[in-house]
Design goal:
Order of helices and strands: HHH
Mean pLDDT: 88
Low-confidence stretches: none
Shape: elongated
Distance between the termini: 40 Å
Number of strands: 0
Structural class: mainly alpha
Strand content: under 5%
Largest sheet: none
Length: 70
């Protein structure tokens, strides 16, 4: 007996064009992981204050690599 599951939900990480402040990276991450947008943005600001260079580079790379929502 063979049982195969097929999942109809294939979530991909995309930038959020509707709820964006700079480029939509935090909004897209919040939507993908089903987290509050405010919490993700506050976490990004906290990380920017604690590790400014690493967070800045990561944000720029993410904004270049994460595709826009079609």
């Amino acid at each position: 007996m063979s049982y195969q599951r097929e999942y109809s939900v294939h979530k991909t990480l995309t930038k959020d064009r509707v709820n964006k402040k700079l480029s939509g990276v935090c909004g897209g991450i919040a939507r993908h992981y089903e987290l509050p947008r405010l919490a993700v943005r506050l976490g990004a600001i906290f990380a920017l204050l604690m590790f400014p260079v690493a967070t800045g580079v990561a944000y720029v790379v993410a904004s270049l690599l994460i595709p826009n929502k079609a």
